[in-house]
């Protein structure tokens, strides 16, 4: 359930910002992979998303190339993603979609879950953005780490 929320929040965030006229203002293409570990093989679920450096204009008649090193502002991206992810998490909780076994059983209590959400909203979230890849090989290397 949480992985689905993660994919949904990431996709909605990128689509919303790419379609915003302050940024590229385009329909965008991207691929995503779920990594459930860190480089040290610790539990660390996260999504790697590769976004093309441009997109189709709204009328679908021309290609719009993105400008700058990072075409979506990292702070805006991070805050919008946090809001979307936590809103989806709250929605799933309110619909009874979660099971909280063992050490996290206390999250069944609405007040405890609200405290968790408040704590998560209080922290700055950082979305990592990288420069464009130079070749297909560097994409494969990046995703395979």
TrEMBL record:
* GO biological process, alphabetically ordered: DNA transposition
What Pfam family does this protein match (any one)?
Y2_Tnp
- What's the domain of life for this entry? Bacteria
Residue intervals of the Transposase IS801/IS1294 domain:
29-145
Q: Which InterPro entries match?
A: Transposase_32 (IPR007069)
Q: Which GO terms describe its molecular function?
A: DNA binding; transposase activity
The protein in question is named Transposase
Upper lineage? Bacteria, Pseudomonadati, Thermodesulfobacteriota, Desulfobacteria, Desulfatiglandales
